[in-house]
């Protein structure tokens, strides 16, 4: 039997979205903290002097915006089989070299 699909209600969608994003700043900070905790052992982050700090202010102060070109030495090490925590705390086991 076919289920009856609830009629689309834009007000309900907006209300749910607002509820989910009400505290986006806290969610963003917690997400960054978790990412930095998971990757604290990464050579790249250690070389920048982050030293295990997980707050946004330290991240902004220590981690500069970079291009792919600047990360290439790390990427090529991973491609060549280096399984040490280079860019991430856990080994990267697959990498796509697809160009778009």
TrEMBL record:
Domain of life: Eukaryota
Stated name of the protein: Jasmonic acid-amido synthetase JAR1
Species: Glycine max (Soybean)
Lineage: Eukaryota, Viridiplantae, Streptophyta, Embryophyta, Tracheophyta
């Amino acid at each position: 039997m076919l289920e009856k699909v609830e009629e689309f209600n834009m007000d309900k969608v907006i209300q749910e979205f607002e509820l989910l994003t009400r505290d986006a700043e806290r969610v963003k900070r917690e997400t960054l903290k978790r990412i930095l905790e998971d990757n604290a052992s990464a050579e790249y982050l250690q070389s920048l002097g982050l030293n295990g700090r997980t707050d946004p202010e330290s991240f902004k102060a220590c981690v500069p915006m970079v291009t792919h070109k600047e990360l290439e030495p790390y990427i090529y090490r991973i491609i060549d089989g280096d399984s040490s925590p280079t860019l991430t705390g856990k080994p990267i086991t697959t990498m796509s070299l697809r160009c778009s």
